[in-house]
Amino acid sequence: MTWTKKLKIPVALDQQTVRTCLQTWLLPKRIQGQLRQGRRIWVNNLPASVATIVHTGDQLTLQFVPADFRTATSNYLADATHPIEILYQTSDLLVVNKPAGMKAHPNQPGETGSLLNALAAQLAPTEQAPYMVHRLDQMTSGAMLVALNPIVVPILDRLISSKTIHRTYFAWVRGYFETPTGQFDAPIGHHPTDKRKRWVNTADAQTALTDYQVMQTTTHQSLVKLDLHTGRTHQLRVHLAASGHPIIGDPLYDEQFETSPRLLLHAWQLLLQLPFSDQLATVQAPLPDSFKMTDKIDNY
After folding, report:
1. Would you tell me which of 42, 144, 175, 300 could form a disulfide with 98, CB atoms 3.0–4.6 Å apart?
2. Beta strand segments in the chain, E
3. What's the rounded Cα separation, in Å, for the pair 126 and 255?
4. In the prediction, which pLDDT does 299 show?
5. Rounded distance between C-alpha atoms, residue 261 and residue 150, angstroms
6. Which residues face 5 on adjacent strands?
């Protein structure tokens, strides 16, 4: 199995080397080296090296082989039981609307029922396959990014870690905020007594930043928009709980979680930097109906 990527050189990379193009596109150095050693680079269908100068409109062709990647093949078992809504698609990636209650990926060999199992079934007729990039907790709904080939997985990983790909969430939480906008900046680490949980200001805590904006209130609850600047485990859940505003329905951090049918956390928007491009795309997953029933939410 091989993967071929044909790329048109943009104006911004006119008269640059192939090496500069690959660096600009965030292709890992290890893979750049393997392309060079394997002589799998062509410019306008002629063999080229990483030192070759390219010009606007040239076609750069790269051929990838399984040994280039840590996870070259997608082996999720196909499960067509629950079709997944696709919000956005290119030749390299999908953004899907993950349902609450569905696992993002299987945890055991032979396991089915997850979002990636469902996508494996949906993509089979196109001879494409899903590759894991990031995950949402099982009870979280909303926009989730999935790669369609192993080439872009490390690129998307770097764009996520640098926050070039930006995620925005909505959550219904308990109580009111003294100010309608603000930032949580308490560092987050492992909970001192519960292995399942994280907490603020612990011995191993790391920097964590979350912006919030109050969008709506009811008698007892608040709907907040949340922007992540770091990606700590359970970051939104911990920051809100530590502030006295746990997310409604959170089984770890909301003492009244049993009164809610689900964790009321939704990944609303992804701002994407598209691989091998300077283009941006904004993709939104509409708020589910359960977020709009304020009369019921006020009773949770």
Report:
1. 144
2. 3-8, 16-17, 41-43, 46-47, 53-54, 59-64, 85-89, 93-98, 131-132, 141-147, 166-174, 181-184, 188-190, 198-200, 210-217, 221-228, 265-273, 280-284
3. 46
4. 85
5. 37
6. 62
CATH architecture, range 167-267+292-297: 2-Layer Sandwich (3.30)
- Work out the pLDDT band at 112, boundaries 50, 70, 90: very high
Fold of 71-157: Pseudouridine synthase (3.30.2350)
Listed in sequence order, the DSSP H helices in 16-172 are 18-24, 29-37, 115-123, 153-161
Report the C-alpha gap between 184 and 186 in whole angstroms: 6
Contact 59, 43 (CB under 8 A): yes
Q: Using one digit for the tens of pLDDT, what is the confidence trace for 44-75?
A: 999 999 999 999 999 999 999 999 998 899 99
Which tens digit of pLDDT belongs to each residue from 14-37? 999 999 999 999 999 999 999 999
Helices (H), the chain: 18-24, 29-37, 115-123, 153-161, 235-242, 294-297
Tell me whether domains 71-157 and 167-267+292-297 share a fold: yes
Q: Is 137 a catalytic residue?
A: yes
Domain boundaries, the chain: 3-68, 71-157, 167-267+292-297
- The Cα 6–Cα 35 span in angstroms is 14
Question: Active-site residue among 137, 211, 278, 295?
Answer: 137
| Residue type at position 259 | T
CA triple 48-53-55, angle to 5 deg: 110
Structure tokens at 269: 């928007």
Q: Which CATH number describes the domain made up of 3-68?
A: 3.10.290.10
d(C-alpha 118, C-alpha 1), whole Å: 23
Is 116 strand, coil or helix? helix
